[in-house]
Design brief:
three-stranded mixed sheet; mainly alpha; about 525 residues; 5 domains
Length: about 525
């Protein structure tokens, strides 16, 4: 019984152990299953995440590839369109060229037909002419009993005379036709240039009025026994007219440089208030220096305004001097600038060198700046100066020939003469009486200055008086009387003038010393 109990107990124990083992096994399997499920869930989540990332990257790459392909496709389509446009244009050009070629071909065909017809006509005319010639030969031989050679010579002479006559008629007709066209063209060019350049004119006078702060200043200007006014007139060569006109004195001189210098010096003296011979000489010397600087600046400004580089400094100075020179009352520098502009416009109309034409016009009257210093007319003097300072031959010839003193050698000389005539002939540009007056005074001064021992000669009082300054070392008192008489006789014999001319001869010895 005990053995059975032990056996049952053992069996129960074994069964219980087996059951417990099964329970343990089942519990371990459940935990593993849970862990497996959890791992599978995490794996699924990660796979899903990777799948989503892969899908997103794929879609992004596909989008980029699609955009790139679309852009390349669009560019390719644009290139194809441009190529098609170019091909279309080329086709259009080719079609136009083909049309032109076809038209030219048709024209050539028509011209060939015309030429064939003319050739046939010429052949017919030639045959008729040969027949007529043969007939005339027979007539001449029969009527005049001439030999064949003599008849041939007579016939040729007759034909030559006929051809010469017809040629002369044809040439005359062509010349008449060309002259008509040339005249119309010339008028059109001149009218265009005149209309483009419109200038106002103001004739210059030989007198200048200066206002005074008070009438008391007139007495200070005259000075004790007139010494101040004599010093002013002597140093400047300007006639100072002090009359009853209140608050005004008049400076008169035919030479604009002298008059300008005298006016400036007088204005400085009036402003300064110190008026005596020594101060007058100092102010006049300073004014001369200012005038020389003004002359140089004027020449530089003219060359700059006309855009003419490379002008010789001496020519620049001469241009500045023309500012104070008049011709028939017209300012010579203004006249030269106007002629230069006119020449440039005319040259532009004719399609020739504008810069050279303007240079010819500017320098055509350059000789007037020094014509009182040299013998000869201003065209000859100007051409000599221009050659001396290496100006172009066309410029030199334009200056020399603008008054027909020498032949014109280029079209620029012709343009210069035309522009000079335009500028001088405009209404109000010039006054004949003023030019004659200036020439008479210049001739009076040059005539007096030609006597031996004369230092300077100054025409004042509008030419009614001339003041002669002589060298005191060469001319004594007795010779001075004789010289004054000889000058008066020479003026009477050489010049024509209204009324009488007073000759005042001045001989003085001046000694200067400084006390230090």
């Amino acid at each position: 019984m005990e053995m059975m109990d032990y056996a049952i107990f053992a069996a129960v124990a074994v069964a219980a152990g087996w059951v417990f083992a099964q329970l343990l096994t089942q519990r371990s399997s459940s935990r593993a299953q849970l862990e497996r499920k959890k791992f599978l869930g995490e794996a699924h989540s990660e796979i899903k995440s990777l799948r989503d990332d892969a899908r997103s990257d794929t879609e992004k790459w596909v989008t980029e590839q699609r955009q790139t392909a679309s852009k390349e496709f669009k560019e390719g389509r644009d290139r194809l369109k441009e190529g098609d446009d170019r091909l279309s244009k080329r086709e259009d050009n080719l079609e136009r060229k083909m049309d032109l070629l076809n038209n030219k071909e048709r024209q050539v065909d028509r011209k060939e037909e015309v030429l064939v017809e003319r050739e046939a006509l010429v052949g017919t005319k030639q045959a008729e002419a040969e027949a007529l010639i043969e007939k005339e030969k027979e007539i001449l031989e029969r009527v005049a009993s001439l030999s064949r050679d003599e008849a041939r010579k007579t016939l040729l002479e007759r034909m030559e005379r006929d051809l010469d006559h017809e040629g002369d008629i044809l040439v005359a007709r062509m010349i008449e036709r060309v002259e008509g066209k040339v005249e119309l063209r010339a008028k059109d060019v001149l009218a265009s240039a005149i209309q483009r350049l419109s200038s106002a004119y103001c004739q210059e006078s030989t007198v200048t009025s200066i206002e005074l702060p008070s009438d008391d200043m007139k007495g200070r200007i005259i000075g004790r026994e007139g010494r101040n006014i004599r010093a002013i007139e002597k140093t400047t060569g300007v006639d100072v007219i002090v009359d009853d006109t209140p608050g005004v004195i008049t400076m008169s001189c035919f030479d604009p440089i002298r008059r300008e210098m005298g006016c400036r010096a007088m204005q400085v003296l009036i402003k300064d208030g110190r008026i005596h011979p020594t101060r007058i000489e100092e102010v006049v010397a300073e004014t001369k220096k200012e005038i020389n600087e003004l002359i140089q600046k004027t020449g530089v400004q003219v060359s700059y305004d006309l855009d003419m580089p490379g002008i010789h400094p001496k020519l620049v100075t001469l241009l500045g001097r023309l500012r104070f020179r008049t011709s028939y009352g017209q300012n010579v520098l203004g006249h030269c600038v106007e002629v230069s502009n006119l020449c440039g416009m005319l040259a532009g109309e004719l399609n020739i060198d504008v810069a050279l034409a303007k240079r010819c016009g500017l320098f055509h009257d350059i000789g007037k700046a020094v014509d009182h210093q040299f013998e000869g007319g201003h065209p000859e003097i100007g051409a000599t100066l221009l050659r001396r300072y290496d100006e172009a031959p066309e410029i030199c010839n334009s200056a020399a020939s603008h008054h027909n003193d020498v032949p014109q050698e280029s079209i620029f000389a012709v343009l210069t003469q035309a522009a000079d005539s335009i500028s001088g002939s405009r209404p109000g540009a010039r006054g004949e009486s003023l030019e004659r007056y200036v020439q008479r005074l210049e001739k009076l001064e040059s005539l007096v200055a030609s006597f031996g021992g004369v230092k300077t000669a100054q025409a004042i009082q509008a030419g009614r008086e001339v003041r002669v300054f002589v060298n005191a070392q060469k001319i004594n008192d007795k010779k001075a009387v004789r010289l004054c008489h000889d000058i008066a006789k020479e003026i009477e014999g050489q010049l024509t003038y209204p009324g009488e001319i007073k000759i005042t001869l001045i001989r003085e010895t001046r000694v200067i010393e400084y006390a230090r």
